[in-house]
Amino acid sequence: MRVDSSRPHGTEAGPGGQHGHPGQRGQRGQRGLSKEDGQRGHHGLSEEDGQRGLAARIARSAAATGPATGARTTTGEIVAWLAERRRAHGTRIRRIPFAELDGWSFQEDTGNLVHRSGRFFTVEGMRVHDAGRPGAPWEQPVMRQPEVGVLGLLAKEFDGVLHFLAQAKMEPGNRGMLQLSPTVQATRSNYQRVHGGSGVRFLEFFTEPGRARPLTDTLQSEHGEWFLHKSNRNVVVETADEVAEDPAAEPDFRWLTLGQIGELLRLDNVVNMDTRTVLACLPAPGGQGPSRHTDAEVSSWLGAARSRSRLTAEPVGLARVRGWLRDEQAVRRTDDRHFRVVAVAVEADGREVGSWTQPLFEPCGPGVSAFLFRHFDGVPHLLAHARAEAGLPQTVEVGPTVCRTPDGHGHGHHPAYADVVRAADDARVRYAAVHSEEGGRFLYAESRCLFVSLDGVDDSDLLTPPPDHLWITPGQLGALTGRGHQVTVQARTLLAVLNSGAARLS
């Protein structure tokens, strides 16, 4: 057992000695925020005091689940509001042949599926080489979207409790269509209005300097098996302005506490992927105690995994991808496995554009994302995996113990510990829910997300995992997330479950 003696018990130092998240440095921890406060900064508080204050405010928000504990409304009312907005938007989606796509076409020379504006995203081919595995390279379609989008939550205190402005937003690929979204969820093409539609509501809080105070602001990766080097800005800013406080004026927006979002995260397909990844970037609400490995050891472990990886990816024309074929309805593998590229037509009220067509990736089955955890000296630890995905900007990031997507790396790979997760009885499963992946790009892509306890299990293979797995605390995972491009989107979903109180490991 190693104990990190580089910091006092209960503080949240990150790997390499960082405290919290870069976007949170110098922030005030006191209750209340005047407009002048948002401009002046921390007024003499040390960085460490500011971080402790912010963590305490987040903890209060996580504990508030109804009016009796400081929330403005009940979670039941939020569920009813989402159902009402789902009915009000009246979304319709239908599959169409590629020939009916408006503004999208396959290039003659490459076969790539592109938009006539040259913006949004393209569907191309990706060739993956793994020098550590024999055989021919793996090839598949992949999305390329070089522009960085904004995933932003606007925060404000009401009666001393931090609330977050969430949006009831439709995405064509979501199960149930409408889910709880961040305040702003927009690609650069969207907020620059390439589609010719209306502007993005509340965007100015995230793009105009000085308009709101940043609490966290990092670049994070997206699915490295379906995107090639895709990043989004994950940001939370705080305001003292009167914003969206009249439900009649802003019917698609509501102020929720972190605890209420946590209650919604216990339900299937309610809180969307973009909300989850932003919440994961908040500092963990509470101390974690001594860790099994020091923060420097965690950083060294990830760095070593990156240096060992021999996975490389290169773009190729979609028409040149081997083992895939294109017909009128889909681009698919010859054996109909993994996923397909399909086209849909969408009609939706309440969006910047009322109707449009677009391609989507459709997985051929559900995924699984699970953390095994156990307590060491009374402190919960997660069994993290240094996960290689060819499309990640740095190839390897920290993922859950088990992360199985329908395309499974394309190698027929059976993840380590998958059988342990599958065999876990109800008493060991501390959390289980089904969550949708990004509905603006994927059609009915879902993963079953779990925390599975190993407390009391005497197994040397679990206590001394292989080199690509390591026991780390949730606080260490959160600190890695705060550095950006260190933690996979699947692990960030599970971290959001912890940060919001949707699951408790102790």
- Put simply, the count of helices is 12
Structural class of the secondary elements?
alpha+beta
Instruction: Tell me what portion of residues adopts beta-strand conformation.
Output: 25-35%
Ends distance: 20 Å
Please state the average pLDDT score: 87
Whole-angstrom Rg? 22 Å
How would the global form be characterised? globular
3D structure, described in words:
The protein is an alpha+beta fold and 506 residues long. Helices cover 21% and strands 30% of the residues. The chain has 12 helices and 24 strands. It has helices at residues 35-40, 47-63, 75-89, 188-191, 204-207, 258-264, 273-280, 295-308, 418-423, 460-463, 474-483, 489-499, and strands spanning 92-96, 104-106, 113-115, 122-130, 138-144, 149-158, 161-170, 178-181, 184-186, 213-221, 231-238, 253-257, 311-316, 324-326, 331-333, 339-347, 355-363, 367-376, 379-388, 396-399, 402-404, 429-436, 446-453, 469-472. The strands form 5 sheets. Strands 6, 7, 8, 9, 10, 11 and 12 form a 7-stranded mixed beta sheet that branches. Strands 18, 19, 20, 21, 22, 23 and 24 form a 7-stranded mixed beta sheet that branches. A hairpin with a 5-residue loop joins strand 15 and strand 16. Helix 2 packs across helix 6 (258-264). The protein is globular, with a radius of gyration of 22 Å. The two termini are 20 Å apart.
